[in-house]
Specification:
This protein is mainly β. The chain folds into 2 domains: 1-94, no CATH class; 98-241, no CATH class. The chain is 12% helix and 56% strand. It has helices spanning 2-19, 66-69, 215-221, and strands at residues 33-40, 44-52, 55-64, 74-82, 85-93, 99-109, 120-135, 138-154, 157-167, 176-184, 187-195, 200-209, 233-240. The chain has a 13-stranded antiparallel beta sheet. The chain is elongated and about 70 Å long. The relative contact order is 0.08.
């Protein structure tokens, strides 16, 4: 009898979730998260615009994974059709708020003049993240590749090409380390980017112009100081995201 009652309760709750409209989620969202134009259901729904702090994402949709509820987890497939940040990912939230991200593939426009993007005129990011973990609001693990494409400096103007930042699987403690290299363009670049869970970053590496690089590119590199005997200049940046 108890088993039958339990099964009936589970069926009732699942039916309720399937039919509950997406707008029922609004009261559960954190203070800095807002969903405008909710439609569909809690189980399978969308927002015309989701705003997290000052960052908006348009045309966001989700599909919950019912099996995760049996593990006391909330898991979902997310998809965005926002022209400035389109892509998809799988998310799983633990009872303590820890977040696991997997199978993330996205294209994101780079906001210039902030953080690592300071001085950038235009560029885009291609994200291919196998896995990432966020604990207490901080990124603590990252495996995947981030491509910075069609990098254009606004002042002084220069076309710098495409670059790859790859975070390989590692058992080492934080900080996370990504290998930076050029994919194409007028620059030869190599370096290591370290990220701490607190959001601090440190980039150490070197850069040199390739044969045939334009005068604009050569002039841009002069701000890094004189080259060494092999014609390479040191890159050293640090700050907080």
């Amino acid at each position: 009898m108890r088993l039958a009652l339990l099964l009936a309760a589970i069926v009732f709750l699942i039916t309720l979730l399937v039919r509950l409209p997406a707008r029922a989620l609004l009261a559960l969202l954190p203070a800095d998260v807002a969903c405008a134009g909710p439609s569909g259901t809690v189980w399978l729904g969308s927002c015309e615009e989701l705003r997290v702090g000052a960052m908006p994402v348009a045309a966001l949709s989700w599909a919950l994974h019912p099996a995760a509820l049996l593990r006391l987890r909330l898991a979902a497939d997310l998809s965005s059709q926002d022209p400035a940040a389109h892509g998809h990912a799988q998310l799983e939230v633990a009872p303590d708020g820890d977040l696991a991200i997997s199978a993330l593939a996205a294209s994101v426009a780079v906001p210039g003049r902030s953080g690592l993007a300071a001085g950038i005129g235009t560029a885009s990011l291609q994200l291919s993240i196998d896995s990432a973990r966020i604990q207490a609001g901080h990124l603590v693990a990252l495996v995947g590749t981030i491509d910075l494409l069609q990098l254009h400096l606004g002042n002084p103007p220069a076309e710098l090409g495409d670059f790859e930042l790859k975070f390989a699987p590692s058992n080492a403690p934080t900080p996370m380390a990504g290998q930076l290299r050029d994919l194409n363009g007028p620059l030869s670049v190599s370096g290591i980017l370290q990220l701490s869970p607190a959001g601090a970053y440190q980039l150490e590496g070197s850069v040199a112009p390739k044969p045939g690089a334009s005068e604009d590119v050569t002039r841009t590199l002069q701000i890094l100081g004189p080259p060494d005997a092999e014609g390479r200049r040191t890159i050293s940046l640090a700050g907080s995201l």
